[in-house]
Specification:
F-box domain-containing protein, 23% helix, alpha/beta, elongated, 3-stranded parallel beta sheet, 17-stranded mixed beta sheet, single chain, 22 strands
């Protein structure tokens, strides 16, 4: 069928949308049973599933292959519509004709997936917007389970605010996964009150409506918000009581306030320079730490919790109902696994630490260098103190990854005077180079934990001279800490798959 389908596709590529349907018989006959050899031996249920992987126009073209194929496309389990320059549906007129014929001929055939992709320039045409919305509503009425809508096919998308969907609620009792890329979502669409079975929601490069002060996802279990535009005038509140996993990364505007999520298992939060929660006293290109006293977390370890007196930082008036609630950390406090990353100039986590909740279920924690500011390490100490059952700590220091020059992991045992988690077993560090900053963090941790006689280092593309210097600094740390990491000098490293003794810095 592959060769035949390719020939049919090439033959009909120049045929218009309406003529494509004219080639088909008007009356739907009983689909013939399986027979013959090769793909013709497959039952109809498998064939309609295969047709679901093709673009809609390609699936329609298979109707000319043989009598048995005339109506199979109408029952394809997935619908893929691509509207952009250079594509079959490259003009508004062709899209209108195609959709006008496609949707009625499909009749009541159910859908597992509907994938609608529209080029940014095409979306400015009213006819295109109307027909795409028709496909969206059609899919919802056909018991679709997975719905994806992409309005901007470029990355990044620069004109998101011009891609507005109809401000009408989406209604589907069967929809379980919804992915939206490059669209504007108004309040009427955002709450999704008619999607009682929705569990997965992915929002990428979307703009939340300017009036969306509260968003409720009651049935949602998995939420991903990346590169979205959120209000800069007020803090949006997100209610998702059944959420299991959360990904919040590189979003614009004020960080939304998270309500309680008692079922949360895993969360990834990355606050970047696009966030509006920044201290204006420190610029992005300033290498020094923020010198605004009201931005630090010194109050989190027992001091008073006065409101922030820095006008550029987030004060009590911007936090929900003004009850000194945390913006992020309180909502994340039930998670079992957490990744918390932030740029140095962002203040949202520092402010949250003033009312730091207890992470009573947290077993795995990943922090970046935002949390490890020497010499007091107050932010790191605060969150460790409020994580009583933590088992593994990963520190991603001065290296954004995903690849890191140096990665090492060790087993630890709490000291008698340890005020942090007594359950902590592993500490992992990822960095570019083991310099003075890294050694200060390790020295701070060595005040509360004994490192066991083994650690594993991974070095990638590190010059020999740099490696020798790292070895000397590691030895200096062992000597200055008062409690060596190893009892017999068996601190091993690996470079080019060869074992190296850090104690002697010799190549094995």
């Amino acid at each position: 069928m592959g060769a035949a389908a390719s020939m049919a596709s090439a033959f009909f590529r120049s045929i218009g949308a309406q003529r494509l349907f004219d080639k088909m018989p008007h009356g739907e006959e009983e689909m013939e049973a399986a027979g013959g050899e090769g793909i013709d031996a497959l039952p109809n249920a498998i064939l309609v599933h295969i047709l679901g992987f093709l673009p809609a126009e390609e699936a329609v073209r298979t109707s000319v292959l043989a009598r048995r194929w005339r109506h199979l496309w109408k029952h394809a389990t997935s619908l893929h519509v691509l509207v952009d320059d250079g594509e079959f549906l490259g003009t508004a007129a062709k899209l209108q004709k195609f959709v006008n014929h496609l949707l009625p001929l499909r009749k009541r055939a159910s859908l597992d997936m509907c994938d609608l992709s529209v080029g940014s320039r095409k979306w400015h045409n009213k006819t295109v917007r109307r027909r795409v919305n028709d496909c969206l509503r059609h899919a919802a009425s056909r018991r679709v389970r997975f719905l994806r809508l992409r309005i901007c096919l470029m990355d990044p998308c620069w004109d998101i605010e011009e891609h507005e969907l109809e401000n009408l609620p989406l209604v589907s009792r069967h929809l379980t996964r919804l992915e939206l890329h490059g669209v504007v979502l108004r309040q009427g669409f955002l709450d999704l009150p008619g999607c009682s079975a929705l569990e997965h929601l992915v929002l990428d490069q979307c703009a939340l409506g300017a009036r969306a002060k509260m968003i409720s996802f009651k049935s949602l279990k998995h939420l991903s918000m990346t590169r979205c535009i959120i209000s800069t005038l007020f803090r949006t509140r997100i209610l998702a009581p059944n959420l299991v996993s959360l990904r919040f990364e590189k979003n614009h505007g004020m960080t939304p306030m998270l309500d309680s999520m008692p079922s949360l298992v895993d969360a990834y939060v990355n606050i970047t320079l696009t966030c509006a929660d920044t201290c204006k006293l420190q610029r992005a290109d300033d290498e020094e730490d923020c010198d605004c006293d009201s931005c630090d977390c010194s109050d989190s370890t027992g001091g008073d919790s006065d409101d922030c007196d820095c006008d550029s930082c987030d004060g009590f008036d911007n936090i929900g109902d003004g009850n000194n609630n945390c913006v992020l950390l309180k909502g994340l406090s039930e998670a079992m696994s957490l990744t918390l990353i932030s740029e140095p100039t962002m203040v949202i986590f520092r402010n949250d630490l003033r009312w730091c909740p207890t992470f009573s279920k947290l077993k795995t924690l990943l922090l970046n260098d935002y949390w490890c500011v020497p010499d007091d390490f107050l932010a790191l100490a605060c969150i460790l103190e409020h994580s009583p059952v933590l088992e593994k700590l990963t520190l991603q220091l001065f290296s954004k990854g995903p690849a890191h020059n140096v990665e090492f992991e060790g087993s630890v045992t709490p000291t008698l005077g340890c005020v942090f988690s007594k359950h902590l077993k592993r500490v992992e560090v990822k960095c570019k180079v083991v310099d003075e900053r890294i050694l200060k963090v390790l020295k701070f941790l060595s005040m509360f934990y004994l490192f066991q006689p083994y650690m594993f280092f991974c070095f990638q593309l590190i010059p020999r001279s740099t490696f020798h210097q790292m070895c000397k600094k590691s030895s200096a740390l062992v000597a200055s800490s008062g409690r060596p990491w190893t009892s017999s000098g068996k601190l091993w490293a690996f470079r080019d798959l060869l074992p190296l003794s850090v104690k002697n810095c010799s190549y094995g």
